[in-house]
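[audit] Reproducing an earlier prediction to check determinism. Same input, same settings, fresh worker. If the C-alpha coordinates differ from the archived copy the diff job will pick it up downstream; this log only records the rerun itself.
[audit] input (142 residues):
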Amino acid sequence: MSIEFHVLSEDRPGAELRYACALAEQAALQGRRVYLQTTDPGETQRMDDLLWTYSDRSFLPHEVHAGAPPAHERVMVMLGEAPAPATHRELLINLSGAVPERPEAYERIVEIVPADQQRKHAARDRYRQYRERGCTLESVNV
Protein backbone atom coordinates (compact mmCIF):
# COMPACT_ATOMS: atom_id res chain seq x y z
CA MET A 1 0.00 0.00 0.00
CA SER A 2 1.24 3.43 -0.93
CA ILE A 3 0.13 6.73 0.62
CA GLU A 4 1.14 9.87 -1.19
CA PHE A 5 0.65 13.48 -0.18
CA HIS A 6 0.52 15.64 -3.31
CA VAL A 7 1.31 19.22 -2.27
CA LEU A 8 -0.19 21.77 -4.65
CA SER A 9 1.59 25.00 -5.48
CA GLU A 10 -1.47 26.49 -7.23
CA ASP A 11 -3.60 28.59 -4.87
CA ARG A 12 -6.67 29.14 -7.07
CA PRO A 13 -10.15 28.15 -5.94
CA GLY A 14 -10.99 24.65 -7.15
CA ALA A 15 -7.36 23.65 -7.79
CA GLU A 16 -7.70 20.63 -5.51
CA LEU A 17 -10.77 19.29 -7.35
CA ARG A 18 -9.28 19.89 -10.82
CA TYR A 19 -6.11 18.07 -9.78
CA ALA A 20 -8.23 15.18 -8.43
CA CYS A 21 -9.94 14.93 -11.83
CA ALA A 22 -6.59 14.76 -13.61
CA LEU A 23 -5.34 12.04 -11.22
CA ALA A 24 -8.55 10.05 -11.65
CA GLU A 25 -8.32 10.29 -15.43
CA GLN A 26 -4.68 9.21 -15.47
CA ALA A 27 -5.38 6.19 -13.27
CA ALA A 28 -8.49 5.18 -15.23
CA LEU A 29 -6.54 5.34 -18.49
CA GLN A 30 -4.07 2.92 -16.87
CA GLY A 31 -6.94 0.54 -16.13
CA ARG A 32 -7.15 1.32 -12.41
CA ARG A 33 -10.45 1.66 -10.57
CA VAL A 34 -10.63 4.92 -8.63
CA TYR A 35 -12.72 6.24 -5.77
CA LEU A 36 -12.91 9.94 -4.94
CA GLN A 37 -14.03 10.26 -1.33
CA THR A 38 -15.59 13.65 -0.65
CA THR A 39 -16.52 15.55 2.50
CA ASP A 40 -20.26 15.99 1.93
CA PRO A 41 -23.06 15.76 -0.68
CA GLY A 42 -22.32 19.29 -1.93
CA GLU A 43 -18.71 18.44 -2.68
CA THR A 44 -19.81 15.17 -4.28
CA GLN A 45 -22.09 17.15 -6.60
CA ARG A 46 -19.35 19.68 -7.45
CA MET A 47 -16.93 16.83 -8.19
CA ASP A 48 -19.54 14.99 -10.29
CA ASP A 49 -20.19 18.15 -12.34
CA LEU A 50 -16.47 18.79 -12.75
CA LEU A 51 -15.77 15.25 -13.96
CA TRP A 52 -18.21 15.92 -16.82
CA THR A 53 -16.70 19.26 -17.79
CA TYR A 54 -13.07 19.61 -16.70
CA SER A 55 -11.59 18.40 -20.01
CA ASP A 56 -12.77 19.03 -23.56
CA ARG A 57 -10.56 16.25 -24.94
CA SER A 58 -11.85 13.28 -22.98
CA PHE A 59 -14.78 11.60 -21.29
CA LEU A 60 -14.29 9.90 -17.96
CA PRO A 61 -17.06 7.38 -17.18
CA HIS A 62 -17.95 7.87 -13.53
CA GLU A 63 -20.77 7.36 -11.11
CA VAL A 64 -21.83 8.63 -7.70
CA HIS A 65 -21.66 5.75 -5.21
CA ALA A 66 -25.12 5.12 -3.74
CA GLY A 67 -24.37 1.86 -1.96
CA ALA A 68 -24.70 -0.38 -5.02
CA PRO A 69 -22.03 -1.73 -7.38
CA PRO A 70 -21.33 0.39 -10.47
CA ALA A 71 -24.02 0.26 -13.15
CA HIS A 72 -21.53 -0.88 -15.82
CA GLU A 73 -18.08 -2.48 -15.78
CA ARG A 74 -16.69 0.48 -17.78
CA VAL A 75 -17.25 2.79 -14.80
CA MET A 76 -13.66 3.21 -13.67
CA VAL A 77 -14.32 6.14 -11.34
CA MET A 78 -16.79 6.37 -8.49
CA LEU A 79 -17.24 9.11 -5.93
CA GLY A 80 -19.11 9.85 -2.74
CA GLU A 81 -18.90 10.53 0.98
CA ALA A 82 -19.05 6.90 2.13
CA PRO A 83 -16.05 4.56 2.10
CA ALA A 84 -15.22 3.09 -1.31
CA PRO A 85 -16.99 0.00 -2.55
CA ALA A 86 -14.81 -3.11 -2.78
CA THR A 87 -14.78 -2.78 -6.59
CA HIS A 88 -12.99 0.61 -6.50
CA ARG A 89 -10.10 0.33 -4.07
CA GLU A 90 -7.10 0.44 -6.38
CA LEU A 91 -6.76 4.20 -5.87
CA LEU A 92 -8.45 6.32 -3.24
CA ILE A 93 -8.23 10.06 -3.88
CA ASN A 94 -9.11 11.26 -0.41
CA LEU A 95 -10.80 14.65 -0.40
CA SER A 96 -12.68 13.94 2.83
CA GLY A 97 -10.23 15.57 5.23
CA ALA A 98 -10.12 12.42 7.40
CA VAL A 99 -7.93 9.33 7.41
CA PRO A 100 -9.92 6.35 6.07
CA GLU A 101 -11.04 3.85 8.69
CA ARG A 102 -9.03 1.05 7.05
CA PRO A 103 -6.26 2.52 4.88
CA GLU A 104 -4.86 -0.99 4.36
CA ALA A 105 -7.98 -1.80 2.30
CA TYR A 106 -6.62 0.35 -0.56
CA GLU A 107 -3.71 -0.31 -2.90
CA ARG A 108 -2.85 3.38 -3.09
CA ILE A 109 -4.13 6.52 -1.36
CA VAL A 110 -3.51 10.06 -2.56
CA GLU A 111 -4.08 12.97 -0.21
CA ILE A 112 -4.16 16.31 -2.02
CA VAL A 113 -2.69 19.14 0.04
CA PRO A 114 -4.00 22.57 -1.00
CA ALA A 115 -1.78 25.64 -0.89
CA ASP A 116 -3.68 27.45 1.89
CA GLN A 117 -2.10 27.20 5.34
CA GLN A 118 -5.16 26.08 7.32
CA ARG A 119 -5.74 23.06 5.07
CA LYS A 120 -2.00 22.30 4.98
CA HIS A 121 -2.10 22.09 8.77
CA ALA A 122 -5.00 19.60 8.58
CA ALA A 123 -3.00 17.54 6.04
CA ARG A 124 -0.04 17.46 8.43
CA ASP A 125 -2.34 16.01 11.09
CA ARG A 126 -3.45 13.27 8.68
CA TYR A 127 0.20 12.59 7.79
CA ARG A 128 0.95 12.05 11.51
CA GLN A 129 -2.05 9.75 11.88
CA TYR A 130 -0.93 7.60 8.93
CA ARG A 131 2.63 7.50 10.28
CA GLU A 132 1.36 6.42 13.72
CA ARG A 133 -0.43 3.53 11.99
CA GLY A 134 2.87 2.44 10.46
CA CYS A 135 2.06 3.46 6.89
CA THR A 136 4.77 4.23 4.35
CA LEU A 137 4.39 7.84 3.23
CA GLU A 138 5.65 9.91 0.35
CA SER A 139 5.36 13.63 -0.44
CA VAL A 140 5.14 14.93 -4.00
CA ASN A 141 5.27 18.63 -4.89
CA VAL A 142 3.08 19.54 -7.87
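[audit] rerun output stored. Observation attached for the diff report: The first helix runs from residue 15 to 29.
[audit] end
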